[in-house]
Amino acid sequence: MDLYVMNCELLATCSALGYLEGDTYHKEPDCLESVKDLIRYLRHEDDTRDTRQQLGAGQILQNDLLPIITQYSQDKALFDACIRLMVNLTQPALLCFGKVPDDPTVRHHFLEVVSYLQAYKEAFANEKVFGVLSETLYNLLQLDWEQRQEEDNLLIERILLLVRNVLHVPADPYEEKNVDDDASVHDKLLWAIHMSGLDDLIKFLASAQSEQQWSMHVLEVISLMFRDQTPELLVSAGQARSSQEKQRDAQELEALRQKEQAEKRSRTLQRGTRHSRFGGSYVVQGLKSIGEKDVIYHRGLHNFKNYTHDEGKAVRRVPKRKLHARDSEGKRRSALNVRLFLREFCLDFLENCYNRLMYLVMEGLIREQAQQHDETYYLWSLSFFMAFNRGNGFRADLVSETMSIRAFHFIERNITNYYEMMLTDRKEATSWSRRMHLALKAYQELLLTVNEMDRSRDENIRQSANVIKSNIFYLMEYREIFLTLLRKFDETKQPRTFLRDLLESTHLFLRMLERFCKGRNNLVVQKKRVKSKKSKGRKNPTAAETTPEALEETWGAVAEELRAISFQLSEALTEGAVPFDAASEIPLEEQRTEAMVRVQDALLNRWGPEALGLLRAAREVWPEGDVFGSADVEPEEELELLKQILIANLPRPPPPEPGMEEEEDGELEEEELESVRVSETEFNFLDFIKRFANPNIVRPYLLLLRSYSQNSPHTNHCITRMLHRLAVDLKMDALLFQLSVFCLFNKILGDPAAAAYKELVTFAKFVLNRFFALAAKNNKAFVELLFWKSVGAVREMTEGYSKPGEGEGSKKKAKWTPEEEDELRTLYEEHRDSEVPDIVETLLPLLSNTTLTRRQVVAQLVAMGLVDSVKDLKKQRKGTRIVLWTEEQEEELQMLFEEFRDSDDVLGNILKKVTAKRSRARLVEKLLSMGLVSDRRELHKKRRRNPNAPGKSAAMRMTEEEFLADLTGGLTEEPMDGDEDEEEDEEESEGEERERRAPAARGRKSWMAERESMVEKNASLRTMVYTLRHEGMSGPLLWLQNCLNRTADDREEEGLFQPVPIVPLTEENEDAMEKKSFQRLLQKIGVRAPADEQESFWRIPAQMRPSQLRGAAEVLSPSQDALAAGAEESEQPTPGSPIQEQQQGEADSHEQRAQALRALLLARKMKQPSASAEHTDFTPVEDIDSDSAPQRSSEKKTSTKRRRVVLDSDEDEEDSPLTMDLGADGDADSDREAHSAPAKRKRQRVLIDDDEDD
């Protein structure tokens, strides 16, 4: 851009800066204001960056700004303003435009800005400029943290940004046509930094603890300083060449010499014997030209081997989307003095700064305190400095910060993220590919360093390497990463250098894994399986799955699995276990039942680790009450608790009503569900190698092999070794029988310098020999060369082709014996005239061979000529064929409805008896249209319920005490109907008896535990009330009773269930609410304590029903208290003695009391009650209501015994002096009850009284 097109205001502002006379700059009085104006102009420039271009064309930075900061550095305001302006002017063009523009005009502006930046970089290669910057930075760093102002910190950051921007400017390949060892502009800039001492300040910033806020800026500057360098060149700078380097150079020279000699020989053979002006013309017989005649060749015969029909044709243009990705610019060797100073910088940096700086940067990246894509600087620094350390005598302590599993995980996560972004953000796919290449290089360097540690002489370092290898070989993500990258390689987005590093990294990983496996008999690794399954809703366990025998078998498998893993769960299972649904409308406190059901479902599916993880997660969410065990529970106690959950009869939500969830055709909507199962398996190295036997993985290897002459010997060795593993170790040589591979082998064998590729030549000859040996046996082998082959195709090609229908992936054809054919013919003739809806389904159970499938039987019927086509036996979809109803069918339906209208399952019974089978939805529609029912809900299956059940969703609104009672072995809704169910079952039919046999058995088993649980709870409450009355709390108890009754009345009248706070208004009630004994009574009743600091009062929960509230209030009444006191007095082994005397003599008579208690327990077991009693949630089973007492006393004259078992915490021992500890020497009955208690057992205390009814 010329000066005469500069904006007038901009030109006037630049003129007001000052002028340069010789080496002296004379600033104008308005210099500072002019600099600020330029900053303001840059802030308001347009999309073409016109202001920036005009300032670059006017060389304002070279002629004005740099002289100002060098000569007027003492003017702090002017110096700060100039630094601000230069930071803006030198920022990368990509930041100015956002991306490389596609539009030609905007791209021209972009290139103009880049050219001005390159001119700025050349101007900055001045020791005087960097001397001023270094001195200013040094003075600022000398200030203590307390003395620094905000302007000082801003100036430090701007100087670092200015250095970063200048180093970031790309080189101009057209202007800098320098050879190796010549000084480029970048080298001059680095030398100026070194001479000014700025490199020492950068090392100080990287190592000083007080300057850690600049860690990211320092890492950017360092990575840009070493941008054009390679670790190998820096390591060897100033040192004599090693013998390995000399040998490698000699091999390269020998290969070039052989190639040159071969080309000379070929040129000698190409010279014809005749005169050069007469090349000759020849007719190529058998090779047709465009017409019908043979091709006429007008050149010498020695050139005919290179003849092709494509000669003279225009080269087809490759579409842009199919162009191969270009490699980045190659590295060059800097001047020797620059390399020497950079080598010393690397040594000091590794010794003093590397570990600390990388730690700070990693913390910033993890906490997302850095800017976007800043992790690329971290990845580059990791790979560069670890490679330098490995080549310079390798010291593990210098790179210990990045030599960890944390670094492996960080890099693996970034590789995965870059790959996903490369697929989604297609416009920036090249940039994402470049970042993924950086991450791959870092991963490769980590593996190389671990391999170097494994060869160390220090035993501790070798052990550390083994620990790291054990972790990366165990986790599936680290093993699968190379398979994924190879399978997904795309040459249009990823360059050849990426492929080279990928293959070399894969070779190193496999070599390390093979060596690791050889030293061990077995290696256990993690395995993840993603299962896709179709779900038709939640499926409750069937009766067959919950039989005692099936549960015992399930528990044996689960317990064995948990003991095998020593109750240790993986991190994935621990983090993935969520016992509650955060999005559910059900409150968190009410999801405990669902969490317990989920644990039981996991146990029924034999997912032991998942069940244990859910149990532990639920314990953290609901610690109160120790429902899921206490915090310090032992593993064996957890195992016992899991067993109780498995055999418990838990309340489950009702299944969806029949007929409502079905569509018209009777089919449910299915959805795909994916579940990831983590397990452990024994690792087999050969099986792992088999996963590389895939055409998608072999292709990248052959793609890189095409450039074998440009590859390094190590790269060619990596390719050959992998192909050797497939062809020799796996005996899958046929995988390489492909025409393009053979063309490549032919090129290698015909290469004049083939002697330099002995390994490749030997392998190519081996594969070709194997192919021609196979072609002698298989005449289709030459056709197979046209296709890439899978493992199955390779097996068929080498072992013989299978007939259609006999392949591995297809169903094997069943072999029918003559006897089976005769049997099928006989059965078909017998049933062909019977009007069965599906004759195949009729024949299948009658055949002697029970392994035959429907498809095999249908195919055999067609093959035997018994039916004409498969369509004749096609299975009809349920409920879709029959549409019209005849009069007979309507009469039958009406008769069946009248017969079963009073049964529990009207629709189910009709479906069983109806002749014309139809879908459930069609039957419902017909019954509605005939007017037999007026609502679909009349046809829903009726569930048997206890008459005392309060509502439909009572099972889902259980209190904690009811839930624990269910957990001990039975449902609260049918506590004492076991004998009545037996009498009803004897009168029912055999079919119904079979269906109800299992639930009835469960009811009988759970009856005793249910009854005892209710008695124990109410006995405990009465004891606590009795104790509190003797302590003088009759007033607070009466107040609490009134609160409960009043809340019950409100809920019955208004129907609103909300938490109600219990507010004490008198001093007596306030004192009672603060006592622990009264609070324990509130907890027993079900009143909730304050949840957090915002709540001050205890609250009656919303889920407590009016019946529960009235039952609790009845327990608090004085009559119940007196009854409890009389019962307790009759229970005492020494009647007539006071309570205090009993407490004092308890130790002396403990053994005598225990014997008496055991005798009473055994007597009670022999006398079970024969009739059930109605009771509320807080009323004991034996309590007799005042209204029904005369009637029941007339019906029952026999004596009954009461037993009350109190399960309470150890704290209650002080407040309940009347209780007696049974200890460890309980009777056989207490042992039998122990299996239904939670794993964290509490002390059991039994109160027994003998009362005789009048």
TrEMBL record:
Biased composition (Basic residues): 528-539
Origin superkingdom: Eukaryota
InterPro entries xrefs: Timeless (IPR044998), TIMELESS_C (IPR007725), Timeless_N (IPR006906)
Subcellular location: Nucleus
Domain Timeless N-terminal: 24-284
GO cellular component, one term: replication fork protection complex
Family designation: Belongs to the timeless family.
Residue ranges with Low complexity bias: 1154-1163
Origin species: Salvelinus namaycush
Acidic residues: bias regions: 974-992
Name this polypeptide is given: Protein timeless homolog
Region (Disordered): 528-550, 938-1009, 1109-1254
